[in-house]
Design a protein that fits this description.
With 150 residues, this protein is an all-beta fold. Helix content is 0%, strand content 45%.
Length: 150
């Protein structure tokens, strides 16, 4: 009999859910979660859990920010840590920038962590910046995450 090793990435609810920077996840404790950052304009956002800033008036942009918590677990592996990367599977709306930990996301994967500990709740900062030139619409963006045993 061969025992297979495995690692698993799940998104977990923030321990301070509902406070600023800690919005609730839909589908928490799974590998496929969603985050609703609310309805935003250059003036405000309707979700109190979102950190909102606006700059430059009608020619500037607004930014929404939230912390996203995750955990990577392992079974039957000799690996002591993992690396986590993220990238966009599709091009975002023109004028919208998606960042994780201050690094812009694109179709090329970026490193979130290079040496993460297993079974520990960790987080990254998700930042979405929307230029004033973006027309009214629903902004939705998938982000692909990959956890790899080191």
């Amino acid at each position: 009999m061969t025992v297979q090793s495995s690692i698993s990435l799940i998104f977990v609810q923030s321990p301070q859910v509902g406070t600023q920077d800690n919005c609730a996840l839909s589908g928490a404790n799974s590998s496929s979660a969603a985050l609703n950052l609310g309805i935003a304009t250059m003036a405000s956002d309707n979700e109190s859990c979102v950190q909102f800033t606006s700059t430059g008036g009608s020619t500037g942009s607004y930014t929404l920010q939230d912390l996203v918590y995750y955990k990577v677990t392992e079974a039957n592996t000799s690996s002591g840590s993992f690396s986590l990367t993220a990238g966009l599977p599709s091009t975002p709306v023109t004028g919208v920038t998606w960042k994780l930990n201050s690094t812009s996301l694109s179709s090329s994967a970026i490193s979130i962590t290079a040496n993460g500990p297993y079974n520990a709740s960790q987080y990254f900062t998700l930042t979405v910046t929307v230029a004033s030139t973006v027309t009214t619409s629903n902004l939705s963006q998938a982000i692909d995450f990959t956890a790899t045993a080191n």
